[in-house]
Each structure stands twice: as structure tokens, then as C-alpha cells.
Amino acid sequence: MKSLSFLAVGLFSGALAATVSQDATCGGTNKYTCLGSQFGNCCSSAGWCGSTTAYCGTGCQSGFGNCGSNNGPSSTVASSTKAPSSTKASSATPAPSASGSATQCLSDKKVPYKVSADAAYAQLAEPYNLRLPYKPAVIVLPTTNQHVQDAVVCGGKAGLKIQAKSGGHSYASFSSGGKDGSMVIDLEPFQTVALDKTSGVVQVGGGVRLGNLADGIYTQGKRALSHGTCPGVGVGGHATHGGYSHTSRSWGLAMDAITAADVVLANGTLVKASSSQNSEIYWGIRGAAESLGVITTFYMQTRAAPESVTYFAIPWTGIFNSKATFTNSFLRLQEIARNSSIIDDRISFGVYVDNYGTFSLSGAFFGSVSEFNSKIKGEFLRNMPTSGEVTVKPYSWYDYLILVAGKDSIKEPLTGYSEHDTFFAKSLTVPEKDGLSSAALDAFYTYSQTASSKSVEFYSIINLYGGPGSTINKKDTNFAAYADRDSLWVFQNYGQGANTVSFMNGLQDAVIKAQPQTQFGAYLNYVDPSYDAATAHKLYYGDALYARLLALKKAVDPKNVFWNPQSIGA
Ligand SMILES: Cc1cc2nc3c(=O)[nH]c(=O)nc-3n(C[C@H](O)[C@H](O)[C@H](O)COP(=O)(O)OP(=O)(O)OC[C@H]3O[C@@H](n4cnc5c(N)ncnc54)[C@H](O)[C@@H]3O)c2cc1C
After folding, report:
1. Using the chain's own numbering, where are the disulfide bonds (predicted)?
2. Residue 214: DSSP 8-state
3. pLDDT mean over 204-211
4. Choice among 56-60, 354-358, 549-553 with the minimum mean pLDDT
5. Which pLDDT band, with edges at 50, 70 and 90, does 3 fall under?
6. Minimum CA distance residue for ligand 1 atom 6
7. How much distance in Å is there from the Cα of 293 to the middle of ligand 1?
8. Spatial distance between the Cα atoms of 136 and 126, rounded to a whole number of angstroms
9. Does the CA dihedral 320-321-323-329 come out positive or negative?
10. pLDDT tens digits along 406-420
11. In angstroms, what is the span from residue 135 Cα to ligand 1's centroid?
12. Confidence grade of residue 473 (pLDDT, cut at 50, 70, 90)
């Protein structure tokens, strides 16, 4: 049935002038074509635009783009001479001579790099999110600051757009350029983790993954930082765009621990940025590093790792049985989240829901198991549906990191990282003063029930950022170029399947429309490629913060060298 309807859609699209895909989806209900799209000219069997054999080969939908090859004879990642894709003027893919002159310049300056003809290119070019596999014109692999400086000058002179890559986990593959034909400065060789035991400040190479960072500071001096749970995520993207985990209500975001950074600017100079040196750059890189330069080294203030963390998890059954049960249950949790006799800065938690009817809560408490059990646990169970087995367990700091990583170890390989996913995700920040209304929760519930009919698998994690004592919300936009300092909740809405983009957009729209009095925002670490630049700037930064960032951008990168589709000035 499905293939018949695809065939019918394919025939139609051949006859009508199809809309070029703006969100990487093709075929399906929207009937977008990939021909001329910035994502690649082939439409895969799953309904995504791309240019590799996964898109142009078996199952490729010829009604919505090319099949067999993306553009010309080559259908593999290996082509770096692809004709320009139809992006807007400021992001137009440069002519092949631009990448040629960049590589000549890199060779002259003895800067290591790879291009598509090199065997290592395909693995290096592969982003975490395989839905958006852009093809950089050149991937630079610097081993010194001077290499980064030279590469930035070479790329800028050649007219290439440049993005740094740390862990490569950008939801929108911005560290691959966010379009084909960019220069990627891959910081994989920058793997230093050096703890100064006297000050507690750790020097962190721009390519270090969070698991190796956590392991390094713990092993070197029993120290800890607040950061996300996935050990493969890189410090470069994560810490410059927020960085949340269940330590954040106590210790703040990963960003908040950055005391200084070594930054290569668009003119090739290397500067130290801190509260006392280049303070405006220091302000700006904590929120918009990708638009301002390449951070080769971070300096971060660690703290003593706690002896013990109390982990808790509560699954409930039957919450999705009715809209009223779902909405009332979440409203009860929201009531707890705002109650200072239950919640202080020592506790963080998130609610997980998915299209299988799961509704559970998990988090961390920097207090004892007995205090949690006597003061908090009962509140989570009171006036809620029946729960499944409740877990409340103490962990050593290191074992806690392993637990929340969901792996056997937090250590990650220094080269050849190979974990990937294919997905579309969005976020929604919910202002502290408003919280979520029952109408918004009703709308979330009703829309979520349509997932199976649309062949989408999704989950949402709704993390508590605000509430009594939250360290995250004690700072404001004077501290860093980061606007999300007054959220009660932050949603991550993550989906997979052919109709994911429209489904996830619809889910979020349903919530927003049901609560029109609220100005929702979006979280910078869950970059959403479905937004145009202006919308992204508004949702991530707001007007005042964006204006200050734009002024800084014009001062330090007047030619807009550091670019992705949503960067400052895009
Ligand atoms: C599996 C998974 C789990 C996650 N878990 C969490 C979580 O628990 N909490 C949370 O807050 N977020 C989480 N995230 C989101 C994550 O924090 C962001 O995707 C983050 O931006 C990825 O950082 P990266 O260095 O790996 O990404 P990259 O793709 O390398 O970089 C992302 C952006 O930052 C820029 N950038 C990277 N390094 C530098 C640098 N040195 N100098 C200048 N610009 C740079 C890049 O150019 C790009 O624009 C998760 C993501 C994934 C995929």
C-alpha cells in the first residue's frame, strides 16, 4: 500500500512543478522534490534528500529527484566538484577553484587536511546525524594553533565558509558546514585534558569528548564538571551552547564553567578571551562560538567530585490512558517543581514520554537516599497514578556518569568515532513565569496520539531547568551570550521515521498554539534546521542579545567567514 501511494505521488510530481525541499524531506504527503535542494538531489526510500548512495541507490524515489547519481557520474561522498546547490546568495557553494585555492594554500603552509579523494575523508565527513550528511570541500586536521590560524586565513582568502568541528553531534550537522562545500576545521587532534590541581582549572582541547573530559579530571584529581550525559558529545559545541545535565540546577551549565578560551579569529590571530582579556569575545563565544572563531583550548573551573549522588527513577503506568490523566499528572509534577519546601538546588529531574505510552521521571539528588526517601519521594507519588518499581540508589560520581551514559564506559576513542543516528529534533523552552498550561498539555497529549498513524517514532524529554534555587537561572545575558536563563522546563522533542519533520513540527506547534500568551524559545544545543535564520535568531537569542552579537560579529568577522545556515549574520 505504501509503495503504491509513493508511486502515485511520484507520477504526480513528474507532471506538476514540485516544491524544492527546504527541510530535507521528500515525497510523502508534502511531495517535495530534492532536485535543486541544499541537502542533495536524490530522494531516499525513507523520504530524505541526500547525495550519497544511501539516497541515490536502491529504493531511491525517482519521482522526487535524481537516482543513480546526485548530480553527475559520481554517486558517492567522494565528489568535491559538485555543482553549486541552490542555497541563498550569502551561502552559495563556491566554485571548485575556491576549494582548489584553499588546498593549495594549506599545502603551502603544511597544514594537514583531507579532501574527498582521500581514503580517510568519508569517515571524517560522516556527522552524528546521518540525516544531514553534508560534504565539506576540505577537512582540516590541525595539530597546532598555528595550523588553525593558517587554515582560517586560507579558507577565508579562498571564499570558503568555515565551521569548527568538535564532537560532531550537532543536530543540524553544522560542524559539517550546514551545507556542502565548506571548510571544516576538525579539532579531533586537540585532545589535551590537563588539570591544574592547585586552581582546579582544567585545560581542555577543542576536540575533547565529554566522556574523556570527565574521565580525565576525575582520574587526575577527583574533580567534576557539569555537562551532558552522552560521552561522545564534544566540549566545543556542547559547552559553547549551554550544556545541561542533572547536575545543572546545582552547578550550572557546562558553559558556566568556562573561565577562558584560546580563540582563532577570522583574521587568523589567536587571542585569549576571558573576563579580563577580550571580554566581549569571551561573552560572545559562550552562546555563539561557531560564528566568531575556532576555540582551540578551553579553560574550565572544575569542582570536587561528590562522594555520592542519589539517582532516582519513577515509572508510571496508565498515564496515557486518558488526556485528563496525562495532563493532571504533569501539572502535579509542575506543582512539585515550583514548591520550595520540596525542591531546592540539589535536585534535578526530567520527564520522559514516548509514543509507546512511557511516562517516567529520573534525576539526581545531591543529598542522601534517606533524605530523598523521607522528604521527596512521597511527594512524587502523592496524587499521581500507580507507579512501577521506584529506584532510589546511591552511586559514586564515576559510576553515576557511567549509569547516565547508558554504556559500559565513559571513555571514547580519540579517533574513528563511529556512533550515529538518523533523526530530526526540536526544542521548546518554557518560561518560568508561565509554566505549562493544562491546554498546552492537553494539546501535547492529543497530538502525540497521532504518531502511529503517521509512522513516526518519537520521544520527548522535558527537563527541569528552573524552580526554587536553580543555579542556571541565577545568571543572565550579561554573563554570556545565552538567553535561556528563565526557563522552568526545556523540551527536547526527538523523532525518527519518514514523516518526522512534519510530525515533530506539528507536535510543537500544537503546544505553542494552545498557550498563545507565552513566548516560547528554543535551546541552542538542540539546533533545529527547519528554522530560517531570522526565526532561529529570535528563538535562540531574542532581539536585544542578537543585536549585540551581530555588532560583535561585524567587528571580528566582517566577511562572515564563520558561517552555518543559522549563524550570527546568516
Ligand atoms: C546523543 C546526544 C546526546 C546529547 N545529550 C545532551 C545532554 O545531555 N545535554 C545537552 O545539553 N545537550 C546534549 N546533546 C546536544 C549537544 O550538546 C549538542 O549537539 C552539542 O552542540 C554537540 O557538541 P559537539 O561538539 O559534539 O558538536 P559539533 O557538531 O562538533 O559542533 C556543534 C557546533 O558548535 C561549533 N563548534 C564546535 N566546536 C567548536 C570550537 N572549538 N570553536 C568554535 N565553534 C565550535 C560547530 O561549528 C557547530 O556549529 C546531545 C546530543 C546528542 C547527539
Report:
1. 42-56
2. H
3. 98
4. 56-60
5. very low
6. 228
7. 15
8. 10
9. negative
10. 999 999 999 999 999
11. 19
12. very high
Q: Is residue 211 a contact partner of residue 411, using CB atoms and an 8 Å limit?
A: yes
- For residue 557, pLDDT over 90 is answered with yes
The number of the ligand 1 atom at minimal distance from the alpha carbon of 527 is 19
State the distance from the centre of ligand 1 to the C-alpha of 331, rounded, in angstroms.
31
pLDDT at residue 85 tops 70:
no
Q: What is the pLDDT of residues 208-242, one digit of tens each?
A: 999 999 999 999 999 999 999 999 999 999 999 99
Closest-CA residue, ligand 1 atom 33, reads 237
Site to substitute for ligand 1 among 132, 160, 166, most atoms within 8 A of C-beta? 166
Mean pLDDT over the full length of the chain: 90
Average pLDDT over residues 265-273: 98
Question: How far is 168 from 375, CA to CA, in rounded Å?
Answer: 41
Name residues whose C-beta falls within 8 Å of residue 96's C-beta, 6 or more positions apart in sequence. 80, 81
| Coil vs helix vs strand at 383 | coil
| Cα-based angle 44, 93, 500 (whole degrees, multiple of 5) | 30
Q: Whose CA is nearest to atom 34 of ligand 1?
A: 237
Amino acid making up residue 243: G
Tell me the pLDDT band of 46, cut-offs 50, 70 and 90: low
Ligand 1: distance of its center to the CA of 173 in Å?
A: 10
What is the full DSSP assignment across 270-297? EEEEESSSSHHHHHHHHHHHHHH-EEEE
CA of residue 208 to ligand 1 center, whole Å: 11
Closest approach atom of ligand 1 to CA 178: 49
402 CA → ligand 1 middle, Å: 19
Q: Which atom, in ligand 1's list, is nearest to the CA of 241?
A: 21
Give the pLDDT confidence of 480-504 residue by residue, as tens digits.
Answer: 999 999 999 999 999 999 899 999 9
How many angstroms separate the alpha carbon of residue 83 from the centre of ligand 1?
A: 29
CB neighbour list of residue 461: distance below 8 Å, 6 or more residues apart:
350, 351, 352, 491, 492, 494
Task: Write out pLDDT tens, residues 94-138.
Answer: 545 788 999 999 999 999 999 999 999 999 999 999 999 999 999
C-alpha cell at 388: 512501577
| Residue 570 CA to ligand 1 centre (angstroms) | 19
**CB under 6 Å to ligand 1: residues?**
128, 163-171, 174-175, 187, 206, 228-230, 233-234, 236-238, 240-245, 289-290, 294-295, 525, 564
- The runs of H, that is alpha helices, within 252-409 are 279-292, 323-337, 369-371, 378-381, 397-405
Provide the whole-model pTM. Answer: 0.86
- Centre of ligand 1 to C-alpha 526, Å, is 8
Of the pLDDT bands very low, low, confident and very high (cuts 50, 70, 90), residue 53 is: low
Q: DSSP letters along 78-92, please?
A: T-S-PPPPS--GGGP
Give the mutation target among 91, 126, 132, 170 for probing the ligand 1 site: most ligand atoms within 8 A of CB: 170
Closest ligand 1 atom, residue 244 Cα: 11
The answer to whether 138 and 114 have CB atoms below 8 angstroms apart is yes
